[in-house]
Every structure is written in structure tokens, then in C-alpha cells.
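Q: Entry one of two.
A:
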Amino acid sequence: MQQQLTIILSVAELQALIVDSVNIALDAKAASKDTAPSGQKVLLTRKEAAEILGVSPATIDNYAKAGFLTPQKIGARNVRFRYEQVISKK
């Protein structure tokens, strides 16, 4: 006999759960095909871009707001930065 589990969620909690699940799936799909032939990732997270440029992730946000870097939206809340653009700013 199968056991059933009932979970009570608000509409907002359910929406957040769905959005998070979709973002995880999109990130996994993007990660599987965003690798350049050299093995270097084509899309970088804020943290990865910050490490390459030697700045903090907050500075990467400021660069994006100022137009110094162009963020690529991944899902509703996540952004990535193109490797080529980050390297060109080094």
C-alpha cells in the first residue's frame, strides 16, 4: 500500500516552489550546453565573474547597473554574464 503525504501551502509558497524548480531545471539545461570548445563556461555566475575580475559580487551588480557588463537573464531572478565580455573587461 502506498503512503500519501498531504502538504498545505499558500499560493505564494506554491508559486515560489514552482519558480525555484523551474530555475534549477533551466540552470541545469544551460550548464549542459553553455561550455565553450576550450572547456571554459560561456555563461558565468556573479561570483565567477567577480573572481575573474578580482572584485566582489556586489561590484558586479554595480557594473551591470552602470552598463559596464550586460547580464543575461536566466529564469525570473537569476542572471549570468558572458565569459567573453567579462574577460574583455579584465
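Q: Entry two of two.
A:
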Amino acid sequence: MDLDEIFGIDQEDATARLAALLVDEDERLIDRLIEMRRAAGLKQRDVAELLGITQSAIAKFESAERDPRLSTVRRYALAVGAAVRHDVQANEETTDSDVPVRGSRPVKTEAKKKSVNKMSGGRFAQPTRARRRPVG
């Protein structure tokens, strides 16, 4: 039994395959940033000081114990002398012609929502609303 079976990931599902690919790319990005930190002769403590955070926060960032914000990735990259470029492309494999379109965005099917939620560790399970504080 492989990990896909253990976690119930259907590799026949194009969205699940794309989600797995994106997770792999995220891991390679962090690995490359760590390589660049080391090549620059910087220790985790050095990067932490440059970012104004703790060494343990850098250790968590590098060990993938959390899902860093893009701004954190950019700040880390700047500290180690790297440039992070973003590339967004349409994924032909997951584009369904029968998916209804609202405006220019396709409406996600329930199956797609479940795949995205499963691959994201449940982060998208419940929509959240920002609460406004009363004025005055």
C-alpha cells in the first residue's frame, strides 16, 4: 500500500494529481532556498536575525512544519540572496469544458472541492469571514 492509498488520494483525478504536483514544487522551492542559504554561508540564526524572527521559526520554515505565506518566502529569499519567480499557467488536464463558468472563472465541482480540501489538509473546509470591529 502506498501513501496515495493510505491518504485516499485518487491519482486518476486530474485535480488530485495537480495538487500533488504543486506540493512537490513547494517542497523543491524550500529545498532550493535552503541550498542557497548554505551556499551563502548563512546559518539559520543569521537569516532569523535578518528577518527579525527566531531561529526556531526558520527551522520550522525549512522543515515544512507549516505552510509559509508568500511574503515570508520572499523575505527569506531576499535574506539569502535569491529571487523567487511565480509562474501561473492554465492546466489543460484539469480544464473541463462541461464545468459551468461564472464570469471568467470556472465554478468548482463538488469533487474538485473535495480534492482540493483533502490535499490542503482541510484548510479550505470552512469558509471564514473577517469580523468587523464596531467603530467608536
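A: Comment on entry two: The chain has six helices and two strands. The beta strands are 101-102, 105-106.
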